Amino acid sequence: MDNCIFCKIIKGDVPCIKIYEDDNFLAFMDIYPVAKGHALLIPKKHVEWMQDCDDDTISKSFVLTKKLMSQFKNNLSCDFVQIGVVGEQVPHFHIHIIPQKNNHLLPRWPIISYDTPDEIIEYAKKIQGHIE
Ligand code: 5GP
Ligand code: ZN
């Protein structure tokens, strides 16, 4: 994808601080970290959304993430390693890997309320039973 910043990083057209690379994946430091050590893992193949990636890419992404999490836990002074998939800013599937401290106040998503007691059931029914 010509206008994807992560594809430009993969090509070497935009610099990054690499922490892991193989033929199919790249991990590098996030330019706007939410904690010291915040990194991103990306597949080199451009796919915007995680749900559109092939199963092999997803499996390998999470196995690699698990290995990187151990590296973080063993070598940084963190209490646990948070991972996340957001994709609000960059349309190239990526996994955030963030070292965290127990006393760090993680930003919480604001809590909402359903309009009626039945609405939560309606939402559950829409999601249930559609997995192939
Ligand atoms: P998301 O798409 O998951 O909401 O966030 C994208 C992440 O990519 C952000 O944490 C942002 O700081 C990071 N990011 C965006 N552009 C660049 C870049 O050019 N270089 C690096 N290293 N990180 C970037
Ligand atoms: Zn891309």
What can you tell me about this protein's structure?
- The chain has 132 residues and is of the alpha+beta class.
- The chain has one domain: HIT-like (HIT family, subunit A, 2-Layer Sandwich), CATH 3.30.428.
- It has three helices and five strands; from the N terminus they run H-E-E-E-H-E-E-H.
- It has a five-stranded antiparallel beta sheet with strand order 1-2-3-5-4, covered by helices on one side.
- Strand 1 and strand 2 form a beta hairpin.
- The longest helix is centred in the middle third of the chain and has 21 residues.
- The radius of gyration is 17 Å and the shape is globular.
- The chain starts with a helix and ends in a 5-residue tail after the last helix.
- Bound molecules: guanosine-5'-monophosphate and zinc ion (ZN).
Number of domains: 1
Q: Total strand count, please?
A: 5
> Alpha-carbon distance between the termini?
29 Å
- Per CATH, the class reads Alpha Beta
Mean pLDDT: 94
Q: What's a quick, concise take on this entry?
A:
By secondary structure, the protein is of the alpha+beta class.
Set out the fold topology.
Layout: H1 5-11, E1 18-21, E2 25-29, E3 39-43, H2 55-75, E4 80-84, E5 95-100, H3 119-127
Antiparallel strand pairs: 1-2, 2-3, 3-5, 4-5
The structure holds guanosine-5'-monophosphate (5GP) and zinc ion (ZN).
Residues 5, 14, 16, 28-32, 40, 86-90 line the site of guanosine-5'-monophosphate.
Key terms:
3 helices; five-stranded antiparallel beta sheet; 5 strands; globular; binds guanosine-5'-monophosphate; 132 residues; HIT family, subunit A
